[in-house]
Amino acid sequence: MTQVHSTAIVDAKAELDTTASIGPYAVIGPHVRVGAGTTIGSHCVIEGRTTIGRDNRIFQFASLGAIPQDKKYAGEPTELVIGDRNTIREFCTFNIGVPGAGGVTRVGNDNWIMAYTHIAHDCRVDDHATLANNTTLAGHVHLADWVTVGGLTGIHQFVSVGAHAMIGFASAVAQDVPPFMLVDGNPLEVRGFNVVGLRRRNFSEARIAAVKQMHRLLYRQGRTLDDARSAIEALATQMPEAAADVALMNAFLAGATRGIVR
């Protein structure tokens, strides 16, 4: 039997795995689905068309699946989808999507999301991200795998942050952040590349050297963006061990829509 505290209010139409746990005074709406091993703390409100996967730990007072803070929203059946093994700390707020942009807010797997984080409509947070306290994502933001965001940081709508990038404390992020880069400030500046994070993820020295060279080409040699992209593309042949990292950077730069921080 699902462990539901006697003071929790769970709609009869909600779908809860038999190994899920619902804490005191939590409120679970009719369109909510909760997977195996997930625990929902006291006073949480889970509403809307919200799907939560396996083995998540959701701390007290979180609000997940509320309608978006978007004046265009008119009650359409949009969604919030959360994957597996996420830690979601106190007072986090994740909203469902809006029509016309996919209508789904997505949080992937193995993310560490600290207190008071806001994930707005139609955001996508991939896997293994760390979002420190009071991180705020406006609508349509995309954080790729292994992104780290410092506390009190705001990220502008439609911004993309590439894999393995790190954003420092209290930053204002209004442009796309390429993979691997280390940025902070207001206005935002590139301070280097995330060498500590890459070593923690067991990047080889050859791959780290390639990332260092991509950083130089983009930010230290006075090149135009097109020239830097051409030079980065050539690294795939010059440094074959890092070919996948070079491809990741090239794909990100080709798809950047807000201009990259430079």
Low-confidence stretches: none
| Helicity level | 10-25%
Q: How many DSSP E strands?
A: 28
Radius of gyration: 20 Å
* Terminus-to-terminus distance: 55 Å
Report the principal-axis shape: elongated
Strand content: 25-35%
The major β-sheet equals: 11 strands, mixed
Strand order of the largest sheet: 1-4-7-10-13-16-19-22-25-27-28
Nearest-integer average pLDDT: 98
Count the helices. How many?
A: 4
The helix-and-strand class reads alpha/beta
Written overview of the protein:
It contains 4 helices and 28 strands. With 262 residues, the chain is of the alpha/beta class. The strands form 3 sheets. It has an 11-stranded mixed beta sheet. It has a 9-stranded parallel beta sheet with strand order 2-5-8-11-14-17-20-23-26, with no helix packed on it. It is elongated, with a radius of gyration of 20 Å. The chain starts with a strand and ends in a 7-residue tail after the last helix.
Topology of this protein?
Elements: E1 3-4, E2 9-10, E3 15-16, E4 21-22, E5 27-28, E6 33-34, E7 39-40, E8 45-46, E9 49-52, E10 57-58, E11 63-66, E12 79-82, E13 87-88, E14 93-95, E15 104-107, E16 112-113, E17 118-119, E18 124-125, E19 130-131, E20 136-137, E21 142-143, E22 148-149, E23 154-155, E24 160-161, E25 166-167, E26 172-173, E27 181-184, E28 189-193, H1 195-200, H2 205-219, H3 225-238, H4 243-255
Parallel strand pairs: 1-4, 2-5, 3-6, 4-7, 5-8, 6-9, 7-10, 8-11, 9-12, 10-13, 11-14, 12-15, 13-16, 14-17, 15-18, 16-19, 17-20, 18-21, 19-22, 20-23, 21-24, 22-25, 23-26, 25-27
Antiparallel strand pairs: 27-28
Helix pairs in contact: 2-3, 3-4
